[in-house]
Each structure stands twice: as structure tokens, then as C-alpha cells.
Design a protein that fits this description.
7-stranded mixed beta sheet; alpha+beta; single chain; Fructose-1,6-Bisphosphatase, Chain A, domain 1; 3-stranded antiparallel beta sheet; about 30% helix; about 220 residues; 12 strands
């Protein structure tokens, strides 16, 4: 599938399975995973199934690694670094925000070739913003290219909502940095590529993942 077709797929799946449940979840629609407070909803599960099925149909042989599938079977994650072709799926990033009725959530995909992220998609349905990145070709917000000059010299404020909101804020210069202890691939591969293609960077230090905006990545 070409880049625009994948974005269309994400929008369609979210419109069918996620958005209709925003602000309308019942108590039976929400449960906890392995850890208390680590929430999953019926929207997460249904959207992941739909996205994964469509990606497998369009790309036979590709490994599709979804957050909820890995939660049920952690062994699925082992093949990701060595797969010739793979996708990660985060059906609702920021599930706690989604459950609480906050618009700060997103659906994210990343495509990998031989362990390297080559394309990514982030769709924020309540903000109606789409972010796409292609390795070596650039990053875009709603079709407008993001560059290292987009941000200018703004105050380097931190951000800390969810990865599907944080990384676009960093890439567009609306925040300066973010730090993460949790480092799951479906959380960080989509935004990491977006940020890198916009001129920012991601690095690890003492077990912490640091994401820096283009402004924060420049010499003082």
C-alpha cells in the first residue's frame, strides 16, 4: 500500500471502531491488562484487529505486531528486530486519555524493513491532524512538510501526554523535549521517525529515552 492509502485505512478504521466510542464507553467496554491502570478498551481491540487484518491482506508475509496482541502473547514481539518486513500497530495510543474523554489520543502505525523504520503514520482523530514520515524523504503534518526551521527558537518546554501527541508536538516545535521510561516499539517507532525526519532526534541515556525537538537538537 502506498503512504496515502495506509493513512486512508487508518482514518477509516478509526472512524468505524474508535471515534463512535469516544465519550460513550460503558464500564464493560474498559478493562485492565497485566498491570492495574494499564487500560484497554473494546475500541483498542477492534481497531487493532481491523488494521492488522488489512495490513496482512495488503502485505502477505509481513509480520504485524499489535500492542494488544503482544499483551496477550509477549512472544510475538521477538520477531520484530529480524523480520524482513513488519508493521507495528498502536490502535489507541493514550488509552487513559481516551477513556477520560480527552482528545489527546492517536492511532499509530510504523513500517519496518529489516528492523529499520521506513514509514510511519499518526492520526489524531479528535484534533483531525495527520502526521506521516518516510525515511530519507521527510515528515509532513496534514500534507505540509516539517523541517528543522519549522519550530524556530521557541522556549524548550517539556511535553508529557502520550506518544501520539508528544512526538508531533516535538516535530512541529510546539514542545522542546520528552523523556520516557516505557519504551515499547509501537509507542516510539512512529514518532521517532517523524521527529528524525523533521530534524529532531531520539537518544537513550541511563535507561531513559529522550526525544528532542529540532530546536533542542541544535547547538546553542
Amino acid at each position: 500500500m502506498d503512504t496515502d492509502a495506509v493513512l486512508d485505512l487508518v482514518r477509516e478504521v478509526v472512524a468505524e471502531h474508535v471515534t463512535p466510542r469516544f465519550g460513550r464507553l460503558s464500564s464493560t467496554d474498559v478493562s485492565s491488562k497485566r498491570r492495574p491502570g494499564d487500560l484497554v478498551t473494546v475500541a483498542d481491540r477492534e481497531a487493532e484487529v481491523a488494521l492488522s487484518a488489512a495490513l496482512r491482506a495488503a502485505h502477505p508475509g509481513a509480520l504485524v505486531v499489535g500492542e494488544e496482541a503482544v499483551s496477550a502473547d509477549p512472544a510475538l514481539l521477538r520477531g520484530l528486530p529480524t523480520a524482513d518486513h513488519a508493521f507495528t500497530v498502536d490502535p489507541v495510543d493514550g488509552t487513559r486519555h481516551f477513556v477520560a474523554g480527552s482528545p489527546d489520543h492517536a492511532t499509530m502505525l510504523a513500517e519496518l524493513r529489516h528492523g529499520v523504520t521506513v514509514r510511519s503514520w499518526i492520526w489524531q482523530p479528535q484534533h483531525e491532524r495527520a502526521y506521516v514520515a518516510e525515511r530519507g524523504s521527510g515528515a509532513w503534518a496534514d500534507g505540509v512538510r516539517l523541517t528543522s526551521g519549522t519550530a524556530g527558537r521557541r522556549p524548550l518546554r517539556p511535553t508529557g501526554t502520550c506518544c501520539g501527541v508528544d512526538y508531533p508536538r516535538l516535530a512541529s516545535g510546539r514542545a522542546g523535549w520528552a523523556a520516557y521510561l516505557k519504551q515499547k516499539p509501537w509507542d516510539h517507532l512512529p514518532g521517532g521517525l517523524l521527529l528524525a525526519e523533521a530534524g529532531g532526534r531520539v537518544r537513550r541515556h541511563a535507561g531513559v529515552l529522550l526525544a528532542l525537538s529540532p530546536s533542542a537538537s541544535r547547538p546553542a
